[in-house]
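so my prof wants the structure for this chain in the tokens format not the other one, which i didnt know existed until like an hour ago. anyway here's the sequence
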Amino acid sequence: MNPYVEFDGQLFQLELSQACSIAIPLTFDEHQPNHFGAAQAQAQPLQAGGFVGDTQRGGSCNVQSISMVPHCNGTHTETVQHIVDQSVAVGDALSSSLTSCFVLSVTPIAASDTEESYHPNLELNDQVITKAMLQEQLSSEDLDLMGSVAIRTLPNAPSKCETVYGQEHQPPFFTTEAIQWLSQSNIHHLLVDFPSIDKMYDEGQLHNHHTFWNVPAGSHELTDTTLTHRTITEMIYINDDITDGLYWLNLQIPHFQLDAAPSRPVLYPLTDVTQDNGGEDVGTE
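here's what i got, hopefully its the right format
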């Protein structure tokens, strides 16, 4: 039975059978996305004493030992611990893993085509996502209703699932004004299909991360106003079959006591049943 949720005075049915993961499948030791020159994620059969965790090599079962960098090897979710000294473990980050999510598509533009800014300064060949383009699709009032926002950049080639980002292939990022606008809203979770909300080579300042979590620039300390409940999920992939609009998000994170972990965000389509219900209280099934 499909449950119902109420959002902004409307009743929706969650289409559980149409769930769609927007995590990039991680194929170990083969083509995979990569950021900042990290080693590839690897998987090897466990070997301990006379035991080999590989049935093709005579083992009784398959047992893999993996090595990876969550921030660089694929879809991952991070907390403010990414930029502060104190522990805010990603495994403890979710008060609820289910929330509303607005999916929107944007086409990054050259820094020379906007008057918006970034710290440190923009370079002409930088590709940026601006506040203006976000506001074309989502009002401040609607944004405040959302628990999360997932951003798809165009063009949306499947090659994103194995792109190696580096000096010769730098990803887009948000302008300061764009991240300030998102930060001033009520959203808890920001999901993007590029490796970082900051510029890849930004002198290590991570200014957008500091803004989103309300940590003073240059500081690595939590304050009373730090938004510790927020997460950032990077390197998702939103298939073209998923249209822009409102969904319900299930953000699945392992209980790692680290600043980041591989994650699996799942979107559920919503069917508006307000009129069919005639305004009665349906609840959940």
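also thought this was worth mentioning. Residues 279-285 have pLDDT under 50 and may be disordered.
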